[in-house]
């Protein structure tokens, strides 16, 4: 198992450097001059040249990349053109809100999707199966912002159980969780519907295997057969979709965060794009991509735990 984990970590390193390179090239590909962004359109050629020298934009591309990669590997991501704050500070102030929402959405999606998929598979062809699949189809097609508005209307305006806006004080975890519940549900339900469909498909394939019939022939209870034997062997594609969707939830949180007026990386990234604040765009893009790589690494390692055969691939 240790060798398997080391191999997966080593495979993740070049991917991370590939992301770093793409983030570096972002400034050189998109139209616009960073010096113009800093100084404004009234800047003189002399002022623009001075800023380019200060930023190192007049140096060869390979020199710029070396300095850029060295700074990122030491946690130095530069300063925002607009606020003057360190990019790492801009990210640190908002990253916890994004993680709270992404983790909450993932938990909701798993708690909804896996049991629904298992029940639908066990009761294949029944009214319950049809109801679950219809609800899953609605969940997949329903836009996240529509679900968010319905949740706000019912649980915030009518019942008054949850706040409508904000992300809560990070120093008070219970307050943050209270502010995160509705956005997490709005974010997790569509993904939960997708997981339910995947779980049903995977479970139906496993339930027809010979070892499942053997387990039942031995007199094992249906609960043990379904959850201990069938679900574990059907878990690989489910874990895959959960891991991939966690990365998607970080990006999808932008729309839901806008509906609930939550602080987060998505909102800050949108503002940075509109204002061409390149250091912030690069920093947030790299952090989100690195988080996605880390989640996929964790999924790969979890594969080895679920199925020992994967360790020898």
Give the proportion of residues in helices.
over 70%
Biggest sheet layout: none
Shape: globular
Per the CATH scheme, the topology name of the largest domain is MetI-like fold
Number of helices: 13
In CATH, what is the homologous superfamily of the largest domain? MetI-like
Number of strands: 0
- Give start-end ranges of low-pLDDT stretches: none
The level-1 CATH class of the largest domain = Mainly Alpha
In what range is the share of β-strand residues?
under 5%
Mean pLDDT: 79
Q: Supply the number of structural domains.
A: 2
- N→C terminal distance: 12 Å
Category from helices, strands and their pairing:
mainly alpha
Order of helices and strands: HHHHHHHHHHHHH
* CATH 2nd-level architecture of the largest domain: Orthogonal Bundle
Radius of gyration, in Å, reads 24 Å
Element layout with pairings:
Layout: H1 2-29, H2 34-39, H3 45-55, H4 61-73, H5 87-122, H6 127-141, H7 144-158, H8 173-207, H9 210-217, H10 222-233, H11 235-259, H12 265-275, H13 278-306
């Amino acid at each position: 198992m240790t060798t398997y984990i080391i191999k997966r970590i080593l495979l993740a390193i070049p991917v991370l450097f590939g992301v770093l390179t793409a983030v570096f090239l972002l400034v050189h590909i998109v139209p616009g001059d960073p010096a113009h962004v800093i100084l404004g359109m009234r800047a003189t050629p002399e002022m623009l040249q001075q800023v380019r020298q200060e930023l190192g934009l007049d140096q060869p591309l390979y020199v710029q990349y070396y300095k850029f990669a060295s700074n990122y590997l030491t946690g130095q991501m530069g300063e925002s053109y607009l606020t003057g704050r360190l990019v790492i500070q801009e990210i640190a102030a908002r990253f916890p809100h994004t993680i709270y929402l992404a983790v909450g959405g993932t938990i909701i999606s798993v708690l909804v999707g896996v049991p629904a998929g298992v029940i639908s598979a066990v009761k294949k062809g029944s009214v319950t199966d049809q109801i679950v699949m219809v609800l899953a189809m609605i969940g997949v097609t329903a836009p996240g912002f529509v679900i968010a508005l319905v949740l706000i209307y019912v649980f915030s305006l009518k019942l008054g159980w949850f706040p409508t806006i904000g992300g809560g004080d990070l120093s008070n975890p219970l307050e943050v969780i209270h502010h995160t519940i509705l956005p997490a549900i709005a974010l997790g339900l569509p993904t939960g519907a997708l997981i339910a469909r995947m779980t049903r498909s995977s479970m139906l394939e496993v339930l027809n295997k010979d070892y499942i019939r053997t387990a039942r022939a031995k007199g094992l209870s249906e609960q043990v057969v379904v959850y201990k034997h069938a679900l574990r062997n059907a878990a690989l594609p489910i874990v895959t979709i959960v891991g991939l969707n966690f990365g998607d939830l970080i990006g999808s949180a932008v729309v839901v965060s806008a509906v609930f007026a939550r602080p987060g990386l998505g909102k800050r990234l949108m503002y940075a794009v509109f204002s061409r604040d390149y250091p912030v765009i690069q920093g947030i893009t790299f952090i989100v991509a690195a988080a996605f790589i880390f989640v996929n690494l964790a999924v790969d390692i979890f594969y080895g735990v679920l199925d020992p055969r994967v360790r020898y691939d």
